Fold this protein.
Amino acid sequence: MMMRTILGGLLGGFAMYIIGFLFWGTPLSAIALSRADAQASANLQAAMAQALTRSGTGVYVIPDPATAQGTILYGKGPVAMLFYNNSGFPVADGASLIGGLLLALVTGVLLALALRFVTSDFNARVRVSLLFALAAVLWLHVGQAVFNHAPWGYSLYLGLSDFISLAVAGLIAAKLMDGRSIKPAAPDGTMH
């Protein structure tokens, strides 16, 4: 049973990785991402390099509401939560793809182990998989739109991609842990 659990987790994790690629490594990602024109991108990049290089890589709330002036500016808008990296890297970074695959495989195995410890019934594992995926997405992704006023389109797209990934991984693991093989229907004895 443990081998089936690990195999189910690895296959589920691989499915997560492929689904993530479909959502984020193809033109579908344009549904979630906003674009600035070339000049605006260059201006913003120059402003970030000038203003944030000393502070370095991090997540910034702009303007910073930790001061009275920042609170006033924050209330007036525009505001941003900026994931900033002061180093460049390739758009299709091979190291992140390998790291992402390893993360997906580990996540799939952890999900499979959790399902194995929770219940031994296939239908219950399916329900737990779907409810877990929904709960995780609601709190982790939709919560960003609720608490941090993150754009709803991005949050919902990210949530949908992760819900499908987690649900499929759980379904694959549940099926492989089921242990019952699909048997062909018995012949009814009728000759044609």
The longest strand covers residues 58-62. The beta strands are 58-62, 80-84. Confidence is low (pLDDT under 50) at residues 181-186.
